[in-house]
Design a protein that fits this description.
Length: about 190
């Protein structure tokens, strides 16, 4: 019998959660399509559990054209109606509308900054913040950094980008390493 990997407690025993934790969560992302995907999925999560969104993720990828930001920005009312009748995603008009609005703002940021990646990572000088939490109770729901990014994205016309959602996004795409120090992923993502 092999040794059980020590993980952050939030992923529990669910295999999908564990796979996401082990392969994605906290790993720095520098691909605009993936950053857009995570921004939309984190917004879709508002009021729900992340496992609900993870279970619908493949459906989201199909429904939202592989998270092609230019396609999403051009969605018509007909496409919105189609999305709102799709049981494979969260059928919330405000969240679907936000995805389209956010796509347009995302493209604007890309045009101003050359990429969303460049915009986002400039907040941390291109280097992930390495926290050293020993307990999940220490991990914040939001920080001054997520407050600042949230304010800026809202000013640029995005919605479903409150500070708590943005902090989850920053954790997911590795801008912040919030793996507990006891977690098997902490050392590899912190460079220690």
């Amino acid at each position: 019998m092999g040794l059980e990997l020590k993980r952050c407690s939030w992923c529990g025993d669910d295999r999908l959660y564990q796979k996401y934790h082990d392969l994605e969560w906290g790993k720095p992302v520098h691909n605009d399509r993936r950053l857009f995907e995570m921004l939309i999925l984190e917004g879709a999560q508002a009021g729900l559990s992340w496992i609900t969104i993870l279970r619908k993720r493949e459906n989201y990828r199909v429904a939202f054209d592989g998270f092609d930001v230019r396609k999403v920005a051009e969605y018509s009312e007909g496409k919105v109606a189609s999305l709102l009748s799709d049981p494979g995603i969260v059928r919330n008009r405000l969240k679907v509308g936000a995805a389209i609005k956010n796509a347009r703002a995302f493209i604007e940021i890309q045009s101003q900054q050359r990429s969303f990646d460049r915009y986002l990572w400039a907040y941390v000088d291109g280097r992930p913040i390495q926290n050293g939490w020993t307990s999940s109770s220490q991990v914040p729901a939001k920080t001054e950094l997520s407050d600042a990014i949230s304010r800026d994205l809202q000013k640029r016309g995005m919605s479903f980008v409150g500070s708590t959602i943005i902090y989850s996004f920053l954790q997911a795409v590795g801008v912040v390493n919030d793996h507990l120090v006891s977690c098997h992923r902490y050392a590899s993502l912190s460079g220690s």
